[in-house]
Amino acid sequence: MPDARSYPARPFLAVSAAIVRDGKIFVVRRDGLFSLPGGVVEAGETLKEAVMREVSEETGIAIEPVALAGFRETIARDQADRVERHFVILCFAARWQAGEPALNEELSEARWLDPQELATLPTTPGLAEIVSTAIERLKAAG
């Protein structure tokens, strides 16, 4: 069955969450890289609803989205230079509310770690900057 997200007519809107708990950041491993949990926004749901749903579906964790922490754009091209994938990802600063990681089939690992540890891991581009901004936004929100 072909992937409906391959060779899109337009970018997909997605959300992710930089989740903080006791000073630690929650990261997941997807396709060999550590990143933030999240996924595609469904028609009719708000961005906050989407990020809460996606995090819950992927990890079993309940969160409180607090503020936007930035965005990332992912564009993958095939050998013929056609756009194979295109996602615009809005990243939220979020607080952990409840639950312990119970990963879905898309994820191979999850860790709570000190933000400085991101430098020692293979991550998606810009992850450390998004996490740093998220921590600042959470502090500012009190």
Topology, please?
Blueprint: E1 12-21, E2 24-30, E3 33-35, E4 38-40, H1 47-59, E5 62-77, E6 83-98, E7 109-113, H2 127-141
Parallel strand pairs: 1-6
Antiparallel strand pairs: 1-2, 1-4, 2-3, 2-7, 5-6
Protein architecture, described:
- With 142 residues, the protein is α+β, with helices and mostly antiparallel strands.
- Helix content is 20%, strand content 42%.
- It has 2 helices and 7 strands, in the order E-E-E-E-H-E-E-E-H.
- It has helices at residues 47-59, 127-141, and strands at residues 12-21, 24-30, 33-35, 38-40, 62-77, 83-98, 109-113.
- Strands 1, 2, 3, 4, 5, 6 and 7 form a 7-stranded mixed sheet that branches.
- A hairpin with a 5-residue loop joins strand 5 (62-77) and strand 6 (83-98).
- The chain is globular.
- The N and C termini lie far apart (47 Å).
As a percent range, the share of helical residues equals 10-25%
Please give the largest β-sheet: 7 strands, mixed
Mean pLDDT: 96
String of helices and strands: EEEEHEEEH
Contiguous uncertain segments of 5+ residues: none
- Report the radius of gyration as a whole number of Å: 15 Å
Structural class: alpha+beta
Which term fits the overall shape?
globular
Helix count? 2
What percent of residues are in strands?
35-45%
